[in-house]
Design brief:
By secondary structure, the protein is of the alpha+beta class. The protein has ten helices and eight strands.
Amino acid sequence: GSVEIGVCSIVHLDEAEEGKSAGYYIAKYGDKWQAEIHLKGFSKKDVARITAEFGIPLGRFPENDTAFYQSPAFDALCAWTNKNPQYAKRAGRKGGKYLHDWYEQVSSRIQAKIQEPTNQDFLSAIEKEPYLIDFGIRCGSHIDWKKTAEENKAIYLSERESFQATGFSEFRICCKWLQGCNQRKTINTSLSSYRLKHMVEKWARKTGRGDQYVSNGAFIAAAIHMGFDWKPVFDSPNVMFNISGKSSAIMSLKGASII
């Protein structure tokens, strides 16, 4: 209808504040004076579910920090667009008053889903980093100095083969999360692959995908496949990428406890 897709968040009003009943409200930009939808009777657990399913966070957030694009609600919008392409295209042509790029984001997601990563994509990404295993880049900590060079090589080849055989499902979920990440011109040294893989696990829990374990190696392979620049950390299993810390996938986890 006439309601624009825009940014909102959840606020809590005290008794008699702003002339409204106490409780949680959904408010435009998280401004208390724009509190419109009363979440009557909602508990903190209920609010957390709204955040997980619709990407509507608790507290005030600026317009560019929306978590909507990482929520199941956005997936639903993409599915609706697929079923109503002409109507969505007309609506998207107007740009939108608030989320100006929502139709572009939808189109990008739909295109990415059409091009779902394959097991061959996973294997091709691994080939670009020959020392990549489940734990990340093979380094000094993976070498048993009590064993011979040939024995260590055999262990490495076994780990490599095991990673090739079992890492695809983790690789695929990392690719999905990385759809919400933007590239920057330089390597981001504040975000290691190990920290980023924990973000994927946190996102999976928040969006109802369960306790999804993601290996460091699977994340590295996914980022390579998705076209990010990478730089291994010296004598470490971790890798740095040119992933922007302001990406919507990362901003949606703002305030979350991540290792």
